[in-house]
Amino acid sequence: MSKICQLFSGSSGNSIYIGCGKSGIxxxxxxxxxxxxxxxxxxxxxxxxxxxxxxxxEHTDHASALxxxxxxxxIPVYTNAKSFEKLNSMGCLDGVQxxxxxxxxxFSFFNVKPFEQSHDSEGxxxxxxxxxxxxxxxxxxxxxxxxxxxxxxxxxCDAVFLESNYERSMLDxxxxxxxxxxxxxxxxxxxxxxDCGEFSKALISNGTTRLILSHLSRENNLPEIARQNAVAxxxxxGAKQNSDYRLYVSKPVxxxxxxxx
Length: 261
Fold this sequence. Notes:
Elements: E1 2-8, E2 15-20, E3 23-27, H1 33-42, E4 50-54, H2 60-63, H3 66-73, E5 77-79, H4 81-89, E6 98-100, E7 105-106, E8 110-116, E9 125-131, E10 136-140, H5 148-154, E11 159-163, H6 168-173, H7 178-185, H8 193-205, E12 210-214, H9 223-235, E13 246-249, E14 259-260
Parallel strand pairs: 3-4, 4-5, 5-6, 10-11, 11-12, 12-13
Antiparallel strand pairs: 1-2, 1-14, 2-3, 7-8, 8-9, 9-10
Helix pairs in contact: 8-9
């Protein structure tokens, strides 16, 4: 049985656990190694069961614990070529078994397919993991829009972690300086609640039953607004919450257990 859990989410740090049986992997390590290890332990997951870490991109809120966590626990890292080069030049891969992942690859209990996203980092990938029980899990955060590669990869996934970063009215009237607002709302920024809701329709219409809203902004969004937006969008296609799909909204520090698929 496949299991998933958003451990940390947002600008203060991101990390996702994906497991099947007694084995597991992580996507991103954007807080401290201790906090990630403790979060796993709270869910009765041993850090020694983590066989790989997949990094979406090199920004601090996704990569800050990378070197300590992975060198200490001998966890191999996989990321795109541009993020690899940037992290390596900064010494963030010292002592880490780091690998460039630029195409679909099979591992012992899962297969991973990276896809290109649009973000203002050196490189940025999302992932689709196909587990040994056949479940497909998609990760799509830190992108200004849903790229054609993302759409192609994510349609048909059983569960998707989908960015719902900001509410446009809150961003427009909020305290951020104009250049930052423009960056967030641009094609290389983040996905809005509205764009998240629109793509959610395609996901739920094509078999997704678990939708996890991720990477919410603390300044430009509210969990209930993101939730209501997604539910309202899905109502437009006649999809009913807790019947056709289950919706989760990620907290900066999750207090939820794992979700079984």
